[in-house]
Amino acid sequence: MHTRRLGSHGPQVSALGLGCMGMSAYYGPRDEATARRTLLHALELGVTLFDTADSYGAGHNEQLLGRTLAAHRDRITLATKCGIRSVGTQGTSGGAVIDSSPGYIRRACEASLGRLGTDHIDLYYLHRRDPGIPIEESVGAMAELVREGKVRHLGLSEVSAATLERAHATHPIAALQTEYSLWERSLEQDILPTARRLGTAVVPYAPLGRGFLTGALTMLDGLAPDDYRRHDPRFQGDNLTRNLALLHHVRDLAEQLHVSPGQIALAWLLAQGDDIVPIPGTKRIPHLLDNARAVDLRLTPGELDLLSRALPRDAAHGARYGEKALQLLNT
User: Fold this and answer.
1) Do residues 324 and 232 touch, judged by C-beta distance below 8 A?
2) CA dist list (Å): 19 to 39, 61, 62, 152, 303
3) Catalytic residues, which ones?
4) What pLDDT digit, counting tens, does each position of 284-322 carry?
């Protein structure tokens, strides 16, 4: 597994991390035994960046990682997030409110340390920003945790270029987590150039378009009743039909190179810069293995250009979140 650095002075991590959210919430029922096997297999493949949040399964996901990876703590970069306060019961995907107040950030960090079973968090993100609280106050509280040794590096998730700039002036921001893929390229206009000027790495979540770019999801019938994608605007009706038509260039290139469409999508993303560290999420070993092979796939300049032209910034049909979730973004 190749490695990349998170930010100018951040940790060296595997070029592909592992998004762990789906092991606990949003994508059908949990299978903890399968999830644990997948986490340990990721370690064997050389994955060192594991991404979770206190809101994933209302704490269940952090506990899962803590129990499974405790014996390998010195080999991994553990990333978690605060700022979405769950109001459901532990292990469920109940309601949530945004809270980026300094007091809550401190309480959330202490709780995450306990669930993760560790004395420090390698990368601590503000999951969502409360617009009523100055970002300087939130990042200032997180910086105190760094000074106390409870956190090593800071990150933000789904913020605008202006917010990132203000936050970075308060404390260096090692990583910005946001949605980025062949299917969602809106950050390229303002956010990505700002992150690069500041020396902040970009950690794309949903780098496979929530499974869309693998080519395997052509209808919703086979999804679990509580699967998030049943309500995702891009997977609804005509939007899904029109979006599927965008995939033929990805499929054709995958056939020519004898690889999977998902590997093509990840290889394109990895080729956008050494400061890009995608975290494709999965709870199954076959998908993990398929994703990992993308690290060694080198697309030619012509192939990269073909893909970029086939799926330009505004290609996707439908908003990337429902109306309520869109209101929580600062981008």
Assistant:
1) no
2) 10, 11, 12, 20, 27
3) 56
4) 999 999 999 999 999 999 999 999 998 888 888 888 766
Tokens at residue 38, please? 């997948």
Task: Of 26, 8, 14, 87, give the one whose Cα is nearest residue 282.
Answer: 26
pLDDT tens digit sequence for 143-184 = 999 999 999 999 999 999 999 999 999 999 999 999 999 989
Q: 3-class DSSP state for residue 300? A: coil
Strand duo 49-51 + 77-82: pairing: parallel
Instruction: Please report how the helices 60-69 and 32-45 are oriented relative to each other, as an axis angle in degrees rounded to 10.
Output: 50
**Whether the Cβ atoms of residue 159 and residue 125 lie closer than 8 Å to each other:** no
Please, are residues 53 and 127 in contact by the beta-carbon 8 Å criterion? yes
Torsion (CA) 101, 102, 107, 110 in degrees, nearest 10: 130
Q: What distance in Å separates the CA atoms of residue 60 and residue 13, rounded to the nearest whole number?
A: 24
Full-model pTM: 0.89
Rg of the chain on CA atoms, in Å = 19
Is 145:151 a contact under the CB 8 Å cutoff?
yes
Q: Which residues of the chain have pLDDT under 50?
A: 89-93
Are 81 and 127 spatial neighbours (Cβ–Cβ below 8 Å)?
A: yes
Q: Which two tokens stand for residue 106?
A: 């401190």
Contact in structure between 79 and 69 (CB atoms under 8 Å): no
